[in-house]
Design a protein that fits this description.
2 copies of one chain form a homodimer. By secondary structure, chain A is an alpha+beta fold. Helix content of chain A is 36%, strand content 23%. β10 of chain A pairs antiparallel with β10 of chain B.
């Protein structure tokens, strides 16, 4: 059965409902993070965009757990989508667009606490609409136990909506958060999805390079889903952030560290910068649509190092990160070797 | 008169001669910088590229004047140029290519010493060939006198080859080293040129945004130039680096500075990262052609800060940088106000 998107139109109040959810998600996350941090709180800047729309940017700086955390809500509209998106959705050409979303990047102070990113977004443009986004975890001094718990929590949320979601969106995440020029994944992954419009095909590629090689050729396909199904799934994903991340941050934050660990953390943060500025769709979309630069680049770490020719010493915790954690793994079924 | 490029073919030993010059330039610059630094020397990594060619990467770290300096020579060839270049030179489609060049970025320790970048490069691909590159200066705590001297030295070199070179390449530099998402130039500019093949037209745009607005509509045009003319010009440009930069570094290095100046330097270095990863042609070409990542990203600073929402206080030296030095100026004829 083929369902075309016109059989599956959003409800009349779709924009209002998604926007309200995205704002609530921002509030919920900020509240949870302030409790985690215990020292600093978020300060908010509201902004509007000359071409249409605006947002609320919130940042927590120099906290106890968080060296910097940024949580943004935005709702923007305009006359046309940038070429990079129209290539993927040619039906949107010649139409105005509406987009709303929440995005977050946390840079913890302690190198034993992983950096984490979340973004969920919704687009409407003429005859088409879609949800996208995801979540991924980037440890510096990693623990397999944390990667396992993070992925199991995400899988539980996915499975309650469709059994194909977790395997497909987990794989997509591994392929998306991949630094081709380094031959490394950004971290231990999580979920990534884009252009989810209920038409049934979940993910068609790239499949040609990078981590894809470890996966089978099977491409996830599920029956068509309604707008309501997808919105319910995205809501659940957003609400899974706090239970997936807080236990890890709480457990690792008390770990002692010294200059060696701090230096390695600052060095690895450079990869975050490289990914976001060279590859990240959200960053590029923001810069291409005259988004608010300070809000878009809030994802960049407060302090970063680059070091020419760095390589970890063999048999060190730093080497273990590269050997095991920056390669795709089946975390849900992970067996300590 | 229209001269087609086939009237103006490179000599039989063009690649060998340009390559030799690029290597000599690397040697000359490294020698000059070691004398300037007085403490550390360059260490060299030679590398080869599976698809063809290789290079010598040299880095000086933790020096007296230079916190980090990278000077690269490379010579690469392959079956096809990346799409970004073929768009500009469609005649090269279906042909193999040869490229050689020298590039350099210096990140001084003292915030009163400007960062500087140089790159000169030569391409051959089927029926076409061209020279490109440039030099630009990025001060943190700027002195008009330094910008004036830097530009006058460059102009002198340009004028000895053609009177249109300096005004056109200076303007092109202002337009190229422009961070659109910040509305800022990278620094006080210098020279930039690309696709110089002797066919007479120097620069056709962008002219539509950014600093271009201050310039007249006149587009620089010069009579056709031979391969030998252009090579001689590029050689002179390369050899102008030491006399243009060393006096500035020597003069400013003894200046006292504290935490405030260091913090501002680290913050402004973030703009260097943003430019190189989002806009720079050389970086993108390198990453697209499977270049040696460590050599390409040697341009990134050893330590960098990002700070959400930073703005300089009015009437401070930091504010002066933004107000005067990150906007296009006629430095050669600069009058203190």
């Amino acid at each position: 059965m083929t369902v075309t998107q016109t059989d599956n139109v959003p409800p009349a109040d779709s924009r209002e409902r998604v926007k309200q959810f995205m704002q609530d998600l921002q509030d919920e996350i900020c509240n949870g993070l302030e409790k985690l941090d215990g020292k600093e709180t978020f300060r908010e800047d509201s902004w509007s965009r000359p071409e249409g729309g605006g947002g609320r940017s919130r940042v927590l700086q120099e906290g106890n757990v968080l060296e910097q955390g940024g949580v943004n809500f935005s709702e923007v509209w305009g006359e046309k989508l940038p070429p990079s998106i129209l290539q993927q959705r040619p039906e949107a050409a010649g139409h105005g667009f509406y987009a709303t979303g929440t995005s977050m990047v946390l840079h913890p102070r302690n190198p034993f606490v992983p950096t984490v990113h979340l973004n969920y977004r919704y687009f409407e443009a003429g005859p088409v609409w879609w949800f996208g986004g995801g979540i991924d975890l980037t440890p510096y001094y990693p623990f397999a136990e944390d990667a396992v718990n993070f992925h199991r929590t995400l899988k539980q949320t996915c499975d309650s909506h469709h059994e194909e979601y977790y395997p497909v969106f987990k794989r997509w995440c591994d392929e998306y958060f991949y630094l081709k020029h380094r031959g490394e994944m950004r971290g231990v992954g999580g979920l990534f999805l884009d252009y989810q419009d209920g038409r049934g095909a979940l993910y068609r590629g790239p499949h040609q390079e990078g981590p894809a090689a470890i996966y089978s050729d099977k491409i996830g396909e599920i029956p068509p889903r309604s707008w309501e199904d997808l919105f319910a799934f995205i809501k659940d994903c957003g609400q899974t952030f706090l239970p997936a991340y807080l236990p890890i941050a709480e457990k690792r934050h008390p770990t002692q560290y010294g200059e060696r660990e701090r230096n390695f953390q600052l060095y690895r943060r450079g990869r975050y910068v490289e990914f976001n500025l060279v590859y990240d769709r959200g960053t590029i979309f923001g810069l291409q649509t005259n988004g608010r630069t300070e809000s878009i680049l809030m994802s960049l770490p407060p302090l970063v190092r680059w070091e020419y020719g760095y390589q970890p010493e063999p048999n060190t915790p730093e080497a273990k990160l590269y050997e095991t954690f920056l390669k795709p793994q089946d975390w849900v079924n992970w067996q300590p070797s």
